[in-house]
Amino acid sequence: MSRVWNFSAGPAALPESVLRRAAEEMLDWQGKGLSVMEMSHRSPEYTRIFEKTRDDFRKLLNVPDTHDVLFMQGGAVGMNAIVPMNLLQGFEQAAFVNTGAWSKKTTKEFSKYGLARVVLDNANALADTAAACYVPECASLLDRVNGQQMAYLHYCDNETISGVEFNGQIEALAGQLDCPVVADMSSNILSKTLDVTQYGLIYGGAQKNVGPAGVTIVVVDNALLNRALPICPSAFAFGTVAENGSMYNTPPTYSIYIAGLVFEWLIEKGGVQWAQAQAQEKSALLYDTIDNSDLYNCPVRRQDRSRMNVPFTLADEALNSCFLSKAAEHGLVQLKGHKSVGGMRASIYNAMPLEGVKALVDFMRDFEKTEA
Ligand SMILES: *Cc1c(COP(=O)(O)O)cnc(C)c1O
What we know:
The protein is of the alpha/beta class. It has helices spanning about 15-25, 45-60, 75-85, 100-110, 140-145, 170-175, 240-245, 255-270, 270-290, 320-330, 355-370, and strands at about 5, 65-70, 95-100, 115-120, 150-155, 160, 165, 180-185, 200-205, 215-220, 295, 310-315, 330-335, 345. Strands 2-10-9-8-5-3-4 form a 7-stranded mixed beta sheet, with helices on both faces. Strands 11-12-14 form a 3-stranded antiparallel beta sheet, covered by helices on one side. Strands 1-13 form a two-stranded parallel ribbon. Strand 6 (about 160) and strand 7 form a beta hairpin. Helix 1 (about 15-25) packs across helix 8 (about 255-270). The model is unreliable at about 125-130 (pLDDT under 50).
């Protein structure tokens, strides 16, 4: 068996030790004679798995008692409807920061439920493509949001497709805003330390940085648990899910179990501080390689470049398919950029070791020498 270096944007690579452990425990979990997949979600065994997973996540992200952690379903795209249904009671509108494809999608879906006010975007020559390439100046948000009766301010902390990442700009302003901040962190949760108290809500689908698809992690301020519209389905109402310890209905038990193994792995490595340092080192290596070459180019403004998703183009587009096939011969896969952006994208979440990024940059340098 040989495993490839998998640069998929999601579902993405998982730590090999986690997969091995899951394989060992597949048929017989800790001598109980059954697989985690076959356990009742209310059994004592599964309750142990679930509570440890939740507690490890709280520890990793330093979640204070003011906030609950929920394990839900529907993914981040589902949250585009679930969030307005949960937070719009007593409000007609919410504020949106549009910095790329995912935040735009969130804004569009919101319009089914209320008035979406785009208070900031990175409109420039590229605004109509998914490749808008910078984080806009955020200070003006205070004037545009405060006093406007916004239910919340939504933004996407890491735009997975275009590779644009915030670096605490909105977190730093949150204390001066008169509405809660809601952040989509699907593709960078657990890759940097956060001050969770500054957020009303943080959510993310698991399949990038946490575990397999199927579970959505929700960190919610307890003060926001009971603002749901009457039409909100009970299974998706934060208050109901919280009261029932994420067991109002059957949660995605196996995905949660794997996420738990990933959390154990991350704690062993040194937690989010370790992930943050590693993300810095890996992304710097890749961006330096791109910036020091004549063949590769990254369109994202330097200070706004994502540490998780690294998009780049080749100076000669005709070389794209050759690049991808030669890369695959070297065991470097899933490097094709999103169809809306083109070029390449290397997603390097927590589970991608430095060694994998080194293999990629070695290949990129060789390719430039021999093919370009
Ligand atoms: C992948 C992704 C989504 C979509 O998640 P689903 O689980 O497919 O609903 C939304 N937002 C961001 C930032 C993403 O990276």
